[in-house]
Write a structure and sequence with these properties.
Elements (H helix, E strand, L loop, with lengths): L4 H8 L1 H11 L11 E3 L23 E4 L2 E5 L3 E12 L2 E11 L4 E12 L2 E11 L4 E5 L2 E4 L4 E4 L2 E5 L3 E10 L16 E11 L4 E11 L2 E12 L7 E2 L3 E5 L3 E5 L2 E6 L2 E10 L3 E11 L3 E13 L4 E13 L5 E9 L4 H4 L11 E14 L4 E14 L12 E14 L2 E13 L13 E11 L2 E3 L2 E16 L6 H6 L4 E15 L1 E7 L2 E16 L13 E2 L13 E2 L7 E14 L5 E14 L23 E7 L5 E10 L4 E14 L2 E10 L3 E13 L14 H8 L8 E11 L4 E12 L3 E11 L5 E11 L3 E4 L3 H7 L29
Parallel strand pairs: 1-2
Antiparallel strand pairs: 2-4, 3-4, 4-5, 5-6, 6-7, 7-8, 7-9, 8-11, 9-10, 10-12, 11-12, 12-13, 13-14, 14-15, 16-19, 17-18, 17-47, 18-20, 19-20, 20-21, 21-22, 22-23, 23-24, 24-25, 25-26, 26-27, 27-28, 28-29, 29-31, 30-31, 31-32, 32-34, 33-34, 34-37, 35-36, 37-38, 38-39, 39-40, 40-41, 41-42, ...
C-alpha cells in the first residue's frame, strides 16, 4: 500500500470533519436533545473520550461551563466568558455560546476553539445541530497535534453524520511568516484545494482544484482527485520518481497502483531512460489464506545502448499445499551478464552476481512419545552466474535434486540430531567439468548425541557425532590424470568425532568509571578428538575453510559443508569478561582472548582430487584471537579484533573501529581492516551538521500551535535551514583507490528536507556505476523523488532520520512508503 503526497494531506483534512462528527453521533433517544449540565467547577481534561463500543448505548450529557450562565428552562442556554462546552469527547471553547434545546443547535461566536481526537480547530463562528450534525464552521484553522501540521479553510459545512465539505482549504506543516502588520507570506510548501468533500459511509474523499506548491512554484496540480479517508488502498497514480546514473542517464518513472482486491494488488510503472529507451516495471502481490508471494518484471523491449531486449524476472512465494506440505519459491533471472552493472539497484538478491533459483517442498512431523520433531524435504538449488571478463568468479555447484530428512529429539536429558540427504551436483550451464570440478551424486548422514549438564555458574556438554558420506562421480569431462587417481568411481567414508564443551559463568558487583556495573568472568574449554581419514581422493562439492573468528574457533570441524572433516586432537581455551551497567543493562565493556592447542597436527585440508589449496597444520598453537569493545567514554564506541600469529610474532588480521556520536544527527566513524598480504582497507562514515541555523522561536506567534512549533524545531533548525553532510568512503590502501563510496548533503528547513546523495558502486577493477539520488521530503505529507534513505542507513553506522517516521503517515520502512495512491 503506497501514498501520494496530495492524497495523504487531503485525507488528513478529513479529521476536521470526522473528528467533530463522531463526537456528535452518540446514542440519544429519538426526539430528545441532550440535557446540559451546568458545571462551573469542572476540572479540565483533554482525555475525555466517547464511550467504548462495548459499553451499552445510553444518552450522554452535555457539560457546560462559563463565567456567566443564563438558562430558559427547556428553551435556550446562554453562556458567556471563557465558555467550555463538552459532549462525548468534543470540547468547544469560545467567548459566547448559545444552545437551543428545541432545535438541538449550538451557536458559538468569537474566538471559537474546538478539540477532538488529537486535532484542534479555531475559527470565528460555529453553528452545529448536535444530533443531526448539520451546520457550518467559518474560517476554521486546524492542527494535527501528532503530525505538527495543519491548515485552514474558508468554510466547513457539515452535511450529516457522515458527510462534510470544506471550501478553499489548505494544508502545511510550515509556519506562516510575515512582517508585523504586513501581508502573511506563503508557507514554504502548501497543499491547496478549491473544495474537498468527505463521505464517511463510502470512505472516500473528492478534492477539486488540488495544487501542491513549493517555494511559490506549483509542482503538482490536478483538476480532480479522489482518495480514501484512512490508510486503505486505492487505485491511482503514484508520485513520479527520478534517478540519474552514469550508465543509463536520467530515468523517469511514473507508477500506477492497482488495488485488485483486499488481498491482491499490482504496480505498473512505465519508465523512460534517456540512454536506453522505454521500459516497464510490474509488481504483483497476493496474500491468500495459505499462499502469499510476489512477482516482479523489469522489462526493456529495446535497450538502445545494447541493441537488444533486456529483462529481470523474480518470483517469491510460500504457502501450504495438501495436508501439512509447505512449499517455497525463490526464482530470479536476468537477460544478460551486464545487468548487475547497468541496474545495480534493481536486483533483490543478496549477491548481485549469483542469482538464485530455489524450489522447496517440506513436510514437518512429530513423534510425541519420543519428544521428536522432524522435517522431510525435497529441494532444488540452481544459480545464474553473471560473469565479467575483468573479474570472473567461481560458480557454486547446482543441487537438483536435494532430498533429505532431519530429526531432533530430546528425552530424559539426552539430545539427538540426525540429518540424511541425497544430492545431485552439476555445474552451471556452459561451464565444463575438469579434474578439479566434476559432477556427481552424494549421500550423506550427519548425526550427534549429547547430554547437556547445566547448573548455576557452570555447564558442560559431552557430544558424540558422526559424518558419513558416499559418492558416485561422473566420468564426463574428467582428464586422464584424474581417472588414474581414482581406482573406482564409487567412494565412501565414515568419520566419528567426540567433544566436550564446558564453561563457567561468574559474576560480581563492581564500580568502574563512577558507574555501578556487573562484572562477568566467562572461561570456556572445548575438547575435540576426531580421527584422521584420508579425503584427498574424494570430491569437494560444498566444503570450504571456515573464517577464523570467535565463533568458528569453537566448532568441531574447521570446514563448512559436508565433504571435508578436519582431523583433530585439540583443546580450545578462551576467556571473556564483560561490564554490564546495573541500571540500563547495556554492555559497557567486553574483552576476550581465545586460542587453540593441538595435541597432534591437522592433516586434512580443503583440497579436491589430490590437488591441495592449503598446507597441513603442524603448529602446536593456533593463532590467538583478541577482542575488545567499549562504550564507557561518553559519545564514543570503540572496538577491535586482532588475529595474532605466535609463529610470525605479529598480527595477520586486524580490525579496528571507532565511532563518535555526541548527540542526535552527529556521528562519525572509521574502521581499519588489514588481512596481511591480501587486503588493507579504510572505511569512514559520517552524518554531521556543517551549518546550523538558530532554532525557530516564532512558530507559535506566526500562527502554528505548540505541536507545530515542536515539529519545526525538531532536528535543530527552523525554516531558515540547517545543512548536514552525510557519506561513507571505502579506500583500498593496497590498490590506492576508492572502491565504493556514498557522499551527499541533507538540508533541513524544519518543515521540509532536501537530500542530494551520490553513490558509487564498483563493478570491476576499473569500472564503477555512479548514481545520483534526489529527494524532497515535505514533513507531515510525503517524500518525492528517488529515495536515498536505505542507502544512507545501510552505509552509515549510527545514521538517523532527521524526522521520525509517523505511524499514520509513514510506512514501516523508509524505502517503501505504505500510503494510498491518488488521482484516478
Amino acid at each position: 500500500m503506497r501514498i501520494s503526497p496530495l492524497a495523504r494531506a487531503t485525507a488528513l483534512m478529513v479529521q476536521l470533519a470526522a473528528g467533530v462528527g463522531s463526537a456528535a453521533a452518540q446514542p440519544v433517544p429519538p426526539g430528545r436533545a441532550p440535557t446540559p449540565v451546568l458545571a462551573p467547577g469542572l476540572i479540565p481534561s483533554l482525555s475525555l473520550q466517547p464511550l467504548p463500543k462495548s459499553e451499552p448505548a445510553r444518552p450522554l450529557p452535555i457539560v457546560l461551563r462559563a463565567r456567566t450562565l443564563s438558562n430558559q428552562l427547556d428553551l435556550t442556554t446562554l453562556a458567556e466568558g471563557d465558555v467550555e462546552f463538552r459532549h462525548a469527547g468534543l470540547v468547544i471553547r469560545t467567548d459566547r455560546l448559545q444552545y437551543d434545546h428545541a432545535a438541538d443547535l449550538v451557536q458559538a461566536l468569537g474566538n471559537v476553539r474546538v478539540s477532538r481526537g488529537g486535532v484542534s480547530y479555531s475559527g470565528v463562528e460555529l453553528q452545529l445541530s448536535v444530533q443531526r450534525f448539520e451546520g457550518f464552521f467559518l474560517e476554521p484553522q486546524f492542527e494535527f497535534l501528532q503530525l505538527g501540521a495543519g491548515g485552514r479553510a474558508d468554510r466547513l459545512d457539515f452535511l450529516g453524520n457522515s458527510r462534510s465539505r470544506a471550501s478553499n482549504a489548505s494544508y502545511t506543516s510550515c509556519p506562516r511568516e510575515g512582517g508585523t502588520g504586513g501581508p502573511v507570506a506563503e508557507p514554504a510548501w502548501v497543499l491547496q484545494t478549491d473544495r474537498v468533500s468527505f463521505d464517511l459511509e463510502t470512505n472516500e474523499g473528492v478534492a477539486e482544484g488540488a495544487r501542491l506548491r513549493f517555494l511559490g512554484v506549483t509542482i503538482l496540480a490536478l483538476p480532480t482527485l479522489s482518495f480514501p479517508l484512512d490508510d486503505a488502498r486505492k487505485s491511482g497514480w503514484l508520485p513520479p520518481s527520478v534517478s540519474i546514473d552514469n550508465r543509463s542517464g536520467v530515468e523517469l518513472t511514473m507508477p500506477y497502483y492497482w488495488n485488485l482486491a483486499a488481498n491482491r494488488d499490482a504496480t505498473l510503472a512505465p519508465r523512460v531512460i534517456t540512454r536506453r529507451g522505454l521500459g516497464l516495471d510490474v509488481e504483483f502481490r497476493y496474500l491468500e489464506p495459505e499462499h502469499e508471494g510476489s512477482f516482479q518484471l523489469d522489462w526493456l523491449p529495446h535497450d538502445r545502448a545494447t541493441g537488444q531486449a533486456r529483462q529481470l524476472v523474480q518470483w517469491l512465494a510460500e504457502g501450504k499445499l495438501a495436508g501439512r506440505l509447505n512449499y517455497s519459491v525463490d526464482l530470479l533471472r536476468v537477460s544478460d551478464n551486464d545487468w548487475w552493472k547497468d541496474f545495480p539497484g534493481a536486483s533483490r538478491s543478496f549477491t548481485s552476481r549469483l542469482l538464485p533459483q530455489r524450489l522447496a517442498l517440506e513436510r514437518p512431523f512429530e513423534f510425541g512419545t519420543w519428544g521428536a520433531e522432524g522435517l522431510l524435504y525435497a529441494r532444488a538449488n540452481l544459480w545464474q552466474v553473471l560473469q565479467a571478463s575483468d573479474s570472473p568468479i567461481t560458480s557454486p555447484y547446482q543441487r537438483a535434486p536435494q532430498l533429505g530428512l532431519r530429526l531432533d529429539a530430546r528425552r530424559a536429558g539426552w539430545e539427538m540430531a540426525l540429518q540424511t540427504e541425497f544430492n545431485r551436483f552439476t555445474l552451471p550451464r556452459g561451464e565444463p567439468a575438469d579434474s578439479l570440478r566434476t559432477e556427481g551424486d552424494r549421500w550423506h548422514l550427519l548425526g550427534s548425541l549429547s547430554r547437556p549438564h547445566r547448573s548455576a555458574g557452570w555447564w558442560w556438554t559431552p557430544r558424540l557425532s558422526v559424518n558419513a558420506a558416499a559418492y558416485s562421480s561422473s566420468r564426463d569431462g574428467m582428464s586422464a590424470a584424474a581417472l588414474l587417481r581414482r581406482s573406482a568411481q564409487q567412494a565412501s567414508r565414515v568419520i566419528p568425532s567426540f567433544s566436550i564443551d564446558s564453561g563457567l559463568e561468574l559474576e560480581r558487583n563492581a564500580v568502574y568509571f563512577g558507574r555501578t556495573v556487573y562484572q562477568t568472568l566467562e572461561p570456556r574449554l572445548l575438547y575435540v578428538n576426531t580421527p584422521y581419514r584420508a579425503q584427498s581422493g574424494l570430491p569437494n562439492y560444498d566444503a570450504a575453510a571456515r573464517d577464523f573468528n570467535f565463533v568458528s574457533i569453537y566448532s568441531d570441524n574447521s570446514f563448512s559443508g559436508v565433504d571435508r572433516v578436519s582431523d583433530g586432537h585439540q583443546i580450545t581455551a578462551g576467556l571473556t569478561t564483560r561490564l554490564v551497567d546495573a541500571v540500563s543493562g547495556a554492555e559497557a565493556l567486553r574483552l576476550g582472548l581465545v586460542q587453540r592447542f593441538l595435541f597432534r597436527g591437522q592433516r586434512v585440508t580443503a583440497q579436491a582430487d589430490g590437488t591441495p589449496d592449503g598446507e597441513p597444520v603442524t603448529r602446536k598453537f593456533s593463532d590467538a584471537l583478541l577482542l575488545g569493545s567499549t562504550s564507557v567514554f561518553p559519545g564514543w564506541t570503540l572496538d577491535a579484533a586482532v588475529q595474532y600469529s605466535p609463529e610470525l610474532q605479529r598480527s595477520v588480521r586486524t580490525i579496528v573501529g571507532a565511532r563518535y556520536s555526541p548527540g542526535p544527527f552527529r556521528t562519525v566513524g572509521a574502521t581499519y581492516r588489514l588481512a596481511r598480504g591480501l587486503s588493507e582497507q579504510l572505511e569512514v562514515g559520517w552524518q554531521w551538521p556543517i551549518w546550523q541555523a538558530a532554532r525557530a522561536t516564532n512558530a507559535t506567534a506566526a500562527g502554528a500551535g505548540g505541536a507545530m512549533a515542536r515539529a519545526v524545531a525538531a532536528g535543530g533548525s527552523g525554516c531558515s535551514g540547517s545543512w548536514y553532510a552525510v557519506g561513507r568512503l571505502n579506500y583500498s590502501l593496497k590498490d590506492r583507490r576508492v572502491t565504493d563510496s556514498v557522499f551527499g548533503f541533507e538540508y533541513d528547513a524544519g518543515c521540509w528536507i532536501a537530500r542530494v546523495v551520490a553513490e558509487q558502486l564498483s563493478t570491476g577493477r576499473s569500472a564503477a556505476t555512479t548514481k545520483l539520488l534526489l529527494q524532497l521530503e515535505l514533513v507531515g505529507l510525503s517524500r518525492l523523488g528517488s529515495n536515498p534513505l536505505k542507502v544512507l542507513k545501510d552505509n552509515i553506522p549510527g545514521y538517523r532520520l532527521l524526522r521520525d517516521e509517523r505511524g499514520s503517515a509513514s510506512s514501516p520502512s523508509a524505502d517503501r512508503p505504505t500510503v494510498s495512491p491518488f488521482y484516478d
